[in-house]
């Protein structure tokens, strides 16, 4: 595996690296010999992920930073430059949703809470754009760098109820393509920007929407599975191949791409 992807010794930083998908990304990269930085608002959660990686023989470090705080991100960048001299990969895995930015079956769009909508938009859009801005400045100086954003199946195919999340993830697709062109044209082919678009994965934020307390499918869960040709929800490990592909030189001529990992959801029509 190491010889195929050739990632040993690379330096990566993962925002939201203590979350379900982010921590899985960190562990996957660490197993390939990547020195992995875990960014989280909770230093305790970040350090827990680091300990897991180290217990498996990998190398990692924890950074406490808010992806909406430019000054904290700049301090993180300066720390990495001082300690490692460079950064090779930035994965923007921080993001999420909240109830007030969704529309339940017994609500109308007029019931949506503006303050919650703003928080979701800020976290998903600004929380991706700001780290990209801060760390791409380092990539521009190096003439090399790799940014991977996290999109969603709801970006390309808007879903009922999750209006704030869908809109903000659609913006991630647009930003990914814009940033890919911006960096390649101004700083050369050594800088790439892509996104992974996961389908439906069970997490703490959507568990109650998709599964009953007994673990059965909810009506919404049933609709999603009916429109997923592979007939199941994804697992974090299902993204491993896409992640390693985009992180490595195997994708050195790939930029501005949204790579779907959704069991065929986006390809399905009624």
UniProtKB/TrEMBL annotation:
Q: EC number(s) on record?
A: 1.1.1.131
Q: GO molecular-function annotation terms?
A: mannuronate reductase activity
From what superkingdom does this record's organism come? Bacteria
Q: Which GO terms describe its biological process?
A: carbohydrate metabolic process
Q: What class of enzyme is it?
A: oxidoreductase
InterPro entries for the chain: NAD(P)-bd_dom_sf (IPR036291), Sc_DH/Rdtase_CS (IPR020904), SDR_fam (IPR002347)
Cite the entry's keywords alphabetically.
Oxidoreductase
Family recorded in the similarity comment: Belongs to the short-chain dehydrogenases/reductases (SDR) family.
User: Could you identify this protein by its name?
Assistant: D-mannonate oxidoreductase
Species name: Flavobacterium reichenbachii
């Amino acid at each position: 595996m190491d010889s195929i992807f050739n990632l040993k010794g690379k330096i990566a930083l993962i925002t939201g690296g203590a979350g379900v998908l982010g921590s899985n990304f960190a562990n996957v990269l660490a197993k390939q010999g990547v020195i992995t930085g875990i960014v989280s608002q909770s230093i305790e959660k970040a350090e827990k992920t680091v300990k897991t990686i180290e217990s498996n023989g990998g190398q990692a470090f924890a950074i406490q930073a808010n992806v909406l705080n430019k000054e904290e991100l700049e301090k993180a960048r300066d720390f990495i430059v001082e300690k490692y001299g460079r950064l090779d990969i930035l994965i923007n895995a921080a993001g999420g949703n909240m109830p007030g930015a969704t529309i339940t079956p017994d609500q109308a769009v007029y019931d949506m809470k503006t303050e919650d909508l703003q928080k979701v938009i800020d976290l998903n859009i600004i929380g991706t754009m700001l780290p990209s801005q801060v760390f791409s400045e380092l990539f521009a100086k190096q003439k090399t760098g790799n940014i991977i954003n996290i999109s969603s199946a709801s970006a390309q195919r808007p879903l009922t109820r999750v209006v704030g999340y869908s809109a903000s993830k659609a913006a991630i697709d647009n930003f990914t393509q814009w940033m890919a062109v911006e960096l390649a044209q101004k700083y050369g082919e050594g800088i790439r920007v892509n996104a992974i678009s996961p389908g439906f994965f069970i997490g703490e934020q959507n568990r109650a929407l998709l599964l009953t307390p007994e673990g059965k499918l909810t009506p919404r869960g049933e609709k999603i599975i009916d429109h997923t040709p592979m007939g199941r929800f994804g697992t974090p490990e299902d993204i491993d191949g896409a992640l390693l592909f985009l992180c490595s030189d195997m994708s050195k001529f790939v930029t501005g791409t949204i790579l779907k990992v959704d069991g065929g959801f986006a390809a399905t029509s009624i």
